[in-house]
């Protein structure tokens, strides 16, 4: 693919966490190079491999490559990336600190009330991850009853714990541990502080490949990930959707899935 990292990393090191906001309204660059193209800033929440993570201090992952490839197909220019905790991404978007969210974010009705989404670009279920060498091998949600479990704050993994375990009375609220990111949750699982983590399946597979943890079972949620955009940024959303379908129609999408998820 044509992405060579453009000014993203350079941008991050010079601008750091400063919010850069550019109005999108009615100022298309009109193609032909980046001169005059509208600059947009993307936001993500690393610690969610292989979608977004830090590698030797650099932000990398499927979402990073995919959004860059998609934006490359549009008249917009990606000025850079900003990192947040997952639960702060929607506020950052609505506050105009960022213009697009690429964070394995599930499209759902609750979020759709505040923001818009592009077309879906990946699907997932939830997975229940446990220690590989442990003696705890749950097979269903009810087996998690009374066990300390964890998920990332503000995620659909957390909602799954709420709706499938806490609300039906199978798990005491005090047994649920909420983490700023999934790496911390999985570390706590490895350390024995919790007995299971509820997390998106492709990310569970990545952790299972890299750490002494394993998927005990999956819980079907039929989630779809989309890029988050501000309500009303319709031209921008349309441009991203067009870019996404171009990237899907060519080899880029397949190349990126092979790169980040292995041959499939
Ligand atoms: N798909 C889940 C959700 O939308 C989890 C996303 C977590 N993403 C991240 N970059 N940490 O709630």
Automatic annotation (TrEMBL):
<dbReference type="InterPro" id="IPR006311">
    <property type="entry name" value="TAT_signal"/>
</dbReference>
<keyword id="KW-0732">Signal</keyword>
<feature type="domain" description="Ionotropic glutamate receptor C-terminal">
    <location>
        <begin position="39"/>
        <end position="263"/>
    </location>
</feature>
<dbReference type="Pfam" id="PF00497">
    <property type="entry name" value="SBP_bac_3"/>
</dbReference>
<feature type="domain" description="Solute-binding protein family 3/N-terminal">
    <location>
        <begin position="39"/>
        <end position="264"/>
    </location>
</feature>
<dbReference type="InterPro" id="IPR001638">
    <property type="entry name" value="Solute-binding_3/MltF_N"/>
</dbReference>
<dbReference type="InterPro" id="IPR001320">
    <property type="entry name" value="Iontro_rcpt_C"/>
</dbReference>
<protein>
    <submittedName>
        <fullName>ABC transporter substrate-binding protein</fullName>
    </submittedName>
</protein>
<dbReference type="GO" id="GO:0016020">
    <property type="term" value="C:membrane"/>
</dbReference>
<feature type="compositionally biased region" description="Polar residues">
    <location>
        <begin position="153"/>
        <end position="162"/>
    </location>
</feature>
<dbReference type="GO" id="GO:0015276">
    <property type="term" value="F:ligand-gated monoatomic ion channel activity"/>
</dbReference>
<feature type="region of interest" description="Disordered">
    <location>
        <begin position="137"/>
        <end position="162"/>
    </location>
</feature>
